[in-house]
Design a protein that fits this description.
The structure is a single chain. By secondary structure, the protein is mainly beta. Helices cover about 5% and strands about 45% of the residues. The strands form four sheets. It has a six-stranded antiparallel sheet, with no helix packed on it. Strands 2-3-8-4-7-6 form a six-stranded mixed β-barrel. The two termini are about 15 Å apart.
């Protein structure tokens, strides 16, 4: 639902950040613990000008970004960088200079950094972070993600020991993201981006969807929050996905009208919904990605059986989207409807990241009674609808 990727290259500007040079390589023993997050994102501690701040590791963002609220709190001087394209929408972005920045053994001094208002993303994710660490910072080292021990690390490209597993091809594109290949329902897609800032399993560019011949009754839609906008995406389940020698079935795949993550050369994007199913290493300089099945249980992320997408607040559940063909759509629910009770239980903001929201992905056949804040009631019969 959330794609944080951004082609943050200003018009007429070569680089809002310059993380490629001057770094000190991380040692092979420096592991960073992953911080708790409501969605399968890589959030770790980073240090900016002596202050420890939560940072999101996002291979789909071309340049590292600082939250505007943090820049203002620290009274960092801001300057206009230019207009960035994010999923076809122009976003005006600022920049600032920092004295020092450290992440997993990499250290930078006296460099510029892009600045964006990330408050909308914080509200949607329920997991605030102050920095998005982009591909510019990650492209010179190997990034290893160890789900079995809930940790990540940076190391020099090709450093020993190397993780074991199967390999996928990898290359760094001129504007940032890492590119690989996979197959969906037997169709090969060479232009595939790796995006650790998207919670989706897969995102498919809508222009290539006809290759898969998905029946209309197998598709629904949902909304996706990206930097600067919310967009509506198509959604279906791919029967079979092959990636790096691993086989996956019934993979949630969304479709975007515009180019994947704002980068027109990509047909498919691999997000954290799929990447959390295995341990992996991305070694951009060596042009290789190594994956291995994780030993710990893969988190269960069931599909919606209600079709309700919204924010849980102190004023109730505010509907942001009603999925096409869903029980919610058939029951007449609409965007901006406000639900104050679910099966008689009062809704509040604690539901946003709590177990209470699991009703919306409940067992098919279950009936759920929704009480609108103005008093009327709606009954949904949960079902698999795509």
């Amino acid at each position: 639902m959330f794609a944080l990727a951004c082609n943050c290259m200003a018009q007429g500007q070569t680089s809002p950040t310059a993380m490629q040079s001057g770094g000190v390589a991380a040692t092979e023993t420096e592991w960073l613990e992953l911080k708790p997050a409501a969605y399968p994102f890589l959030i770790v501690d980073a240090v900016l000008d002596g202050e420890t701040l939560p940072a999101l590791i996002d291979t789909g963002t071309s340049h590292t970004i600082l939250d505007l609220g943090v820049a203002r709190r620290k009274a960092m001087p801001l300057r206009h960088l230019g207009s960035f394209d994010v999923f076809g929408k122009t976003v005006e972005t600022q920049g600032t200079d920092f004295a020092s920045f450290e992440f997993g053994g990499l250290r930078q001094q006296a460099q510029p950094m892009a600045v964006l208002d990330l408050s909308d993303l914080h509200a949607q994710l329920g997991t605030p972070f102050a920095i998005i660490i982009g591909a510019d910072f990650l492209s010179t080292h190997a990034l290893q993600v160890d789900w079995d021990h809930n940790r990540v690390r940076l190391s020099s490209s090709g450093a020993s020991p190397q993780p074991t597993g199967t390999e996928a091809p990898l290359r760094m594109t001129p504007d940032g993201p890492f590119e690989t290949r996979l197959s969906i329902n037997g169709h090969e897609f060479d232009h595939t981006a790796i995006d650790t800032g998207a919670d989706s399993d897969l995102i498919l560019r809508k222009a290539v969807l006809p290759r898969l011949a998905i029946a209309p009754d197998r598709m629904t839609d949902r909304i996706s929050q990206v930097i600067g906008r919310i967009q509506v995406e198509g959604l279906f389940h791919a029967d079979a996905v092959q990636f790096a020698g691993l086989h996956f079935e019934r993979i949630a795949t969304s479709t975007a009208d515009t180019a994947v993550s704002g980068f027109p050369q990509f047909d498919v994007l691999v997000g954290m919904g799929l990447l959390e199913r295995f341990n992996f290493m991305i070694d951009a300089p060596a042009k290789r990605m190594v994956v291995s099945p994780r030993k710990t249980p893969i988190p269960d992320r069931p599909s919606s059986t209600s079709g309700v997408i919204g924010n849980y607040t102190a004023e109730g559940l505010i509907l942001l989207h009603v999925m096409r063909g869903s029980p919610a759509a058939k029951a007449g629910l609409k965007i901006n409807d406000r639900i104050c009770k679910v099966d008689g239980q009062m809704v509040d903001a604690s539901w946003q990241n709590g177990a209470q929201r699991s009703w919306s992905v409940g067992k098919p056949g279950r009936k759920v009674n929704l009480t609108h804040c103005e008093g009327r009631e709606t009954t949904l019969t949960l079902t698999e609808f795509y």
